[in-house]
Amino acid sequence: MTRIVIEPISAGAFAPFGDLIDISGMPNKMINQDQCGRYHDRAVLDFADGRAGISLFDANPRALPYTLDMVERHPEGSQAFIPMTHQPFLVIVAPDEDGRPGQPRAFKTQPGQAVNYHRGVWHGVLTPLHGPGLFAVVDRIGGGANLEEYWFETPFEVIEP
Hints:
Elements lengths: L1 E4 L1 E2 L2 H4 L3 E4 L7 E3 L4 E3 L12 E9 L6 E8 L5 E5 L5 E6 L1 E2 L2 E2 L3 E4 L5 E4 L4 E2 L3 E2 L4 E9 L6 E12 L2
Parallel strand pairs: 1-17, 2-12
Antiparallel strand pairs: 3-13, 4-5, 6-16, 7-17, 8-13, 8-16, 9-12, 9-14, 9-15, 10-11
C-alpha cells in the first residue's frame, strides 16, 4: 500500500484544487457597529446550472492512518465544506489525469478553516478527525448527474508526518 503523508494546508498548496477559506490577513471591513470583521468573498462558487444550496452533513469521525480507496468529483458544481466545530479535518485531493485521478495529496486543516473544491476536482469523502463531524456544505442543487466516483485498484494509506 502506497503511503500519503499529510501536509499542512495552505492557500498556495491547495490553490490547484480549490479555495482555502479562513480569516488570514486583515478583514476587508468592520461591520456591526465595528464589532465584526468581514473577510469578504473567500471562495468562488461555480455551477454549470441549478442554484447554490446549503445542506448540513453529519459525518462519522475517521482515525489515522486512514485508508483511501475512493475519490469523487462533481462536474456540475463546486462544493464548500464549512466545519461547524473548531476541529481540524482531513482534505484529500487529486489532480485530473485524462479523466482519472492522479497521485492523491492529503492536507490537514487548522481549527476555523474551511475548503471549497473547484468544480470537477477529484477529492476524498468528508473526513472529520474528531466528533462531532458537523459541516455546512454549500453546493449545487439541480437536476442531472453531478457525481463521479473512482475506486483505486490498490488503496492508499494516509499517515501523519
